[in-house]
């Protein structure tokens, strides 16, 4: 079964104790490349970001190592890219109306609309909540950050999982059931399109090494080649820069 969404961020920790050494030589060697290790007198904290996670199997290997050395996961992010235009402002307005119509625990978090040079973003939920959604214009973000127009609409849907919700999503992910994660996102945040249009979902290419700054070119290579079909020289320049 192919991946239906991807793990883009993992945060985990261990409690230090004299009787249980969490820093095995093998694990520490693997963590050196992540550049996000923080230690206190009582705990060790590690963050593994998008650039360090090669694919879902690699993410599972990291989670498995955490479990085997007595640590636990405190945050997981999952995302999906859909090659389509999505009216983020209209979505925000709709979700805000839904939030106002409900009360108390029926609410899933007040939507926030944010506009920046990188495009529109809708947030639903707070940093302190168990689950938070981000929806944003990935095409415009790539254009502003990389200076390359990929020539097709692209929307990213990304959920941030923390606290009590982590164990459920971790179990689904480790079992290879990304479909259930995607369905949960779609139902919770009124996003049926992320489940109904699998042909528009962009696959993530696997690789042995860490992702490079132009990893998005690899991921969208097929679509880029079609977009630049009238100017193959320009496409080859992009691929050359990637290498």
Quick tags:
243 residues, disordered C terminus, eight-stranded antiparallel sheet, single chain, globular, alpha+beta, 8 strands, 37% helix
Task: Give an account of the 3D structure.
- By secondary structure, this protein is α+β, with helices and mostly antiparallel strands.
- It contains 10 helices and 8 strands.
- The protein has helices spanning 25-31, 56-68, 88-101, 138-146, 166-174, 178-188, 193-196, 215-219, 221-227, 232-242, and strands at 6-15, 37-39, 43-48, 72-82, 111-116, 119-124, 131-137, 155-162.
- A hairpin with a 6-residue loop joins strand 6 and strand 7 (131-137).
- Major sheet: arrangement of strands: 2-3-1-4-8-7-6-5
Gyration radius, rounded: 19 Å
- 3D shape: globular
Structural category:
alpha+beta
Share in β-strands: 15-25%
Strand elements, count: 8
Instruction: Summarize the helix and strand pattern as letters.
Output: EHEEHEHEEEHEHHHHHH
Largest beta-sheet characterization: 8 strands, antiparallel
Number of helices: 10
Q: What is the arithmetic mean of pLDDT?
A: 79
Helix content: 25-40%
Low-confidence runs: 210-214, 238-243
Question: What is the terminal-to-terminal distance?
Answer: 30 Å
């Amino acid at each position: 079964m192919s991946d239906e969404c991807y793990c883009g961020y993992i945060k985990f920790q261990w409690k230090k104790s004299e009787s249980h050494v969490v820093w095995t030589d093998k694990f520490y060697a693997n963590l050196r490349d992540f550049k996000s290790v923080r230690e206190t007198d009582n705990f060790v904290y590690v963050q593994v970001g998008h650039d360090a996670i090669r694919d879902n199997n690699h993410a599972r290997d990291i989670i498995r190592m955490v479990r085997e050395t007595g640590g636990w996961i405190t945050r997981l992010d999952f995302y999906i890219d859909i090659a389509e235009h999505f009216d983020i402002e209209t979505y925000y307005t709709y979700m805000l109306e839904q939030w106002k119509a409900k009360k108390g625990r029926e609410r899933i978090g007040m939507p926030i609309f944010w506009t920046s040079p990188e495009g529109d973003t809708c947030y639903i939920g707070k940093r302190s909540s168990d689950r938070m959604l981000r929806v944003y214009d990935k095409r415009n973000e790539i254009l502003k950050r990389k200076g390359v127009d990929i020539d097709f609409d692209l929307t990213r849907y990304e959920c941030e999982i923390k606290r009590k919700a982590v164990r459920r999503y971790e179990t689904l992910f480790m079992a290879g059931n990304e479909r259930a994660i995607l369905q949960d996102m779609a139902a919770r945040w009124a996003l049926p399109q992320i489940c109904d249009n699998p042909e528009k979902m962009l696959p993530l290419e696997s690789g042995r090494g860490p992702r490079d700054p132009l990893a998005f070119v690899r991921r969208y290579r097929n679509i880029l080649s079609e977009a630049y079909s009238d100017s193959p020289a320009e496409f080859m320049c992009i691929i050359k820069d990637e290498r």
